[in-house]
Amino acid sequence: MKPFLTLLLFFCLNAVFATGPKHQYIKITTAQGECIIMLYNKTPQHRDNIVKLVKKGFYNGTLFHRVINSFMIQGGDPDSKNAPAGKELGNGDVGYTVPAEFRDSLFHKKGVLAAARDDNPLMASSGCQFYLVQGKKFTDAQLDSMEVKRLHFKIPQWEREIYKKTGGVPHLDKKYTVYGEVISGLPLIDTIASVKTDSNNRPLTDVKMEITLLKRRKAKKLEKEMRKSGGDEVSSLLNQ
Asked: Which terminus of the chain faces fewer neighbouring Cβ atoms within 10 Å, N or C?
């Protein structure tokens, strides 16, 4: 009986330690700093696509090629690697798109990762280009006006509070897929958004990036630290 209990305990402990993190995380590193992004499980096709590209090293050496202060910073164009100064960028792709994954709980608050796209009728996302939202803060009056003139739907009250307190770009909601969120290093967005740009919104000094996937052990430790911080906001985030 004793050997059986020992074996049972071994398998129980092994199961506990073998449990992986709930989410996958990517780290963007630039000369201006770095940030860590949680990829949402509610948008599995976008999550799996960027993880696939990151594992291949696809983004390493690409640029944040389109930067608009108080709006967003965009990158992921493969043509931006070693692009000569002044060249207009933003048309590079990987030959496929990702179906739109709109979710009511995912919106364009400051710090989210979202997929760029062209004007295709299905609103399918670029297979590689993305942006990080900076945005700005809004008043109730401004949000009321946007609901009528641009969105044609009501913004939930809890989202309104975030747009007023933290900021974002609400006019993009339900038009571009949001599929991740910066959980560490948020000031990097402000830093890059403030750089000087040319007439095509390309930074005059290249902002190169490297994107890596956090290893399971580090991701698990990160989630443990997040849970320790507690609060409804963290619980909600871990359920995305």
From this structure: N
